[in-house]
């Protein structure tokens, strides 16, 4: 693994915990972790259970005892690391968004195709059992033709103007703000559940344009520097966009870090011809489901606690009604990755999904600048010509 | 109508509003209202739409132009008024609880039987469409055999120790406190939905034993008297009790005015062999329903907005999704009363229900004193011997 | 009053019920109702309490005993009726949207200004106590600078393809579909709470393009004609749009009749610098409020039952915790209208608001056609040149 | 560890996962697991990470390399195992309820006191962060004097009459049914949050008195035996009881396996002089809190997502809004146990709490038989005389 902050912890825990809950033929061994700061990476290796560490990520790729490279570093490093790893024949798991630009994402996809290695993107929320169950219902046609998707990812952790200028607020490191950080998740959920997006039109906004430029920390929190030096926030605090899906559905999306009271409100509602579903990450074990063909007078959203043995992944955990949490989305994702490595295929979401997601992100940025609708397929074609 | 405070307002509004929403053959005419304070009753008559007023309720009973006597006075006056009205051949609607004691309630029931007039008790919450719909589901066997009833009526309006000693806190006027005032409602709902209670065992508690003894007001609010004279609270602030129903179901009940944050939390859950239902007055248009025979994996409580045209009483009001409120429970009740008067029968809950309800109230008081289980049927039999 | 369908019933009830709950110096008298079908309007007059009826609305305007004309007819008749009434010196209450086009709305506004009469638009949801309370909090600065508005009006009553082609689905009668019918409400709420909208960009969609063209009914329901003749649906089933407010806030809006399971889901969330609020019409007595300056660790949305005596309008109704319903929004609105007539001013929302609302509606339609952002102020200026 | 079923899995996972999240001076090493079935225990040892296994639990106690004995076997074995372990100087963690009878529980407590070893009972729900936070609020006096506790543990997993006669339904193995299995949890929560219970009065009921007597399985599920041999259910399906706390608060409790639709509904509400709190295990990361001294008009239950860094235990896990699940209650409990072992004290809930809990359970059973109130202190005194 390369990186050891918030996502490093989440991934490391999942590797460690996976064999306990899942019976897998191919199991992870935490061989090594890489980070630039030797002291910190040593502590992290010890704490999180890695057998060794490196201070240069390139060393990790050179090592023969390592099959899978897991990239949990800031976004501006993903492309170089992933391509290097793939060229060395390593399997790659990469955090989202996979790149700073669509062109880089397409380059990563090309490298992945050439390598024959397994590749996957860490869109963990797909793997919440309630989301997988929603997908199953949609695939079975229980909602019929889809009319509407409305998805929001609402957070509030940077609302305080004294929150410092961490790397997640710098465009050169992260590419975009709320858009790529949390908007990428709801785009992935919408693509997973409803299908490809045909075109988008969006707005980006930075509400607080300057912040104390203290030393960078893990990206989610930091103490303010003593000296009140201010730096420019170069990414969006909020992104909103409309979309048309290829199957005709309408989408409204909003990703913001300025929705006070919403600590981690990743929520969606999907309305179809025959039914509707609702989900909210803050209550991630539940799925609300409405069926239009329920008996008259008895129609209403059902609150389903998606913890039954028959629900996706739940037979690995606890009896019905004993909820799981955030970290289990990674376990579920990793169980698919292990199966992919064992059998030689790249489970979704893979780099193809990563590139498609990046195309939507870039289209939104372009539409926000041009104030025009942007066609996703056309954007990808134009970009791939530059490969 | 006799009385013109909170309940007087609620009843008067219902009479006035009834013809607008319901097509009835027999319609109410607000002939007269009675109250002891001439100035106040005059204002009330004018405001609430009565053609005349009396300062002696006996005059009302003597008048030939009055068919129905509606008793909304404090509890200690119900028995005398109701018996007098029934003996004069008037129909009677009486607020709950109908009496201070079971013996009085049985006397009222006897008078009602002798008179041949229509009699009814104003247990308005039965007439919330969601409750009527719950009854329909239970009657149709959709819940199967009933195992559990848990019902709570939680309020908090007297928690402040400076809240004065209004009539609702004096035993000689009101009979009991939370027990008779709000406990009577959940007993009625349980009897209506699940059937008769066989035996009970309960506790009563008065948390604040002395209060400022200002002038009495409407029972729900009052300003404190200037002089800080204190008087004894002679009724319960809270009542809790267990019960066994005649059909074998277990019941847990709680009525309290000391549940902070619960303004008017009248709520129940009923669990049966095949399903469960939940209701809460604070969200009275919804009913939550669970069916054990819903498809595996898709089981969960449905939140049904009981506002469809097919739901009880709702075709009289607005299109689906346009909610009704507290006052409409009285309109629905009164529509039944009018039908009863037209056709010559006493709709439930009538004085038979009033007496049964009073028997449960008295049994709880007895059990709280004796710390023993009390059998309801036996208590009624013993009491009726004294008639 | 002109018209006697769903809105006719709602308005008539409010006139009738108003004096019971409100102490007003100026009180409504239901003098006359107009409708083209004599038999039907006669029944309506009788049922809803009007002293007389007319089969030609012009007669109503000619009558000296009528001060206020209330227009609850289909949208294509509003402009002519309102202007005629205003020119005759009558006060006018008009249902929303006030016109089929912005030009017509501006003409109505001009007529209103010239007449000196009182004018008001029936945006009743503003008058839900929880919404008024939200406004009070915002006005007091409790939310600080506003960052986000997300508002949805979700219904599902036309999802069945066999639902007939009622007037609400015909452009020549109604102007637009979900947009003008329910979108107009959330635009009004957003303008009321957050301020003017600077520019919009939206999409309109008609999911079911042909329907059985039976006889028209009340607009909300109808039985299908026997002969399966089909007619074209000429309005939108759904409208989604993004907006920028003049104060810088971002807005996402969605109005649809194709959100299965949402009978009447008019809901919004507003996020500000210091707090957030949420409201949902289906649970209209509650307001959820978050304050960023609540003690650390104890922050969370409060569910406030807006039924206290201190809450807007609630002292007119029942004690705390006794909820009101849909119809009371009209009572509250009408109490303001009566005060306006008494004192000679036009309470908001008046025809100025009506025109501003219509400008947003028209801008969305234009943006949906042109796929461009449309500036509201510019649109009004250009339109007013044509007056 | 002795035992390897549902609780065995939960405990083993917690040992394994603990060092990842907590920085402890004393850390668990999974030395050995014991079970009677060699094949099964071997698989379990391997799967759950134990270095060795034994088929006789006594061997475990004899081993020098083992400091802590964790008893997760059926209830009828706890007493013998715990006393043997304590006598051998081992620390003991025991599943709840700790014994079949109060006398056995008192014997275990005596053994614990004599041994000087660390002892603890596995009441894991105390360690949900929201519950710990509730305790903190109560300790700080934020709720004032406590008036009411209402607690329910509602499940539905045995409602199907074909669910077999597993050990959890046999009195000789388990002591009681819903009472000891889930009632013990809500008693522990009530004691933890509100204090000791003075007296109780309860009812027990077995709704389904015979079941297919297949081979015993893990206690929570089983396949039915082919031959339809029926056996008697000798424990309660449901337990309800009233209580008085020593501080004067009233309690209503209900533990049942017959509340359809409630998979794991462990919920309570506590009302005090200054505020109220609500919690539900199915949504275990949230705590609802009401403060009576919140500003007038702005009072309401706050839904607090207890996932902030400042909330109990949460700094060990993820950023705010990233929820934890059922299994983390064990990690939190074990972190306390490790600290106790390191520093030589027995963290609560220890065997003193275990005995007190058992006293309440036994008092309820006695009251259900005698139909009388039972005094807890008196019961313990009488029982301890038999030691």
From TrEMBL, chains A, B, C, D:
Where is each Gfo/Idh/MocA-like oxidoreductase N-terminal domain found? 1-123
| UniProt cross-references to InterPro entries, sorted A to Z | Gfo/Idh/MocA-like_OxRdtase_N, Gfo/Idh/MocA_oxidrdct_glycsds, GFO_IDH_MocA-like_dom, NAD(P)-bd_dom_sf
Q: Where is the GFO/IDH/MocA-like oxidoreductase domain?
A: 132-278
Q: In its keyword annotation, does this UniProt entry include Oxidoreductase?
A: yes
Pfam families under this entry? GFO_IDH_MocA, GFO_IDH_MocA_C3
Q: Which UniProt keywords apply?
A: Oxidoreductase
Q: Name one GO molecular function term.
A: nucleotide binding
Name of the protein this chain belongs to = Gfo/Idh/MocA family oxidoreductase
Taxonomic source organism: Aquibacillus halophilus
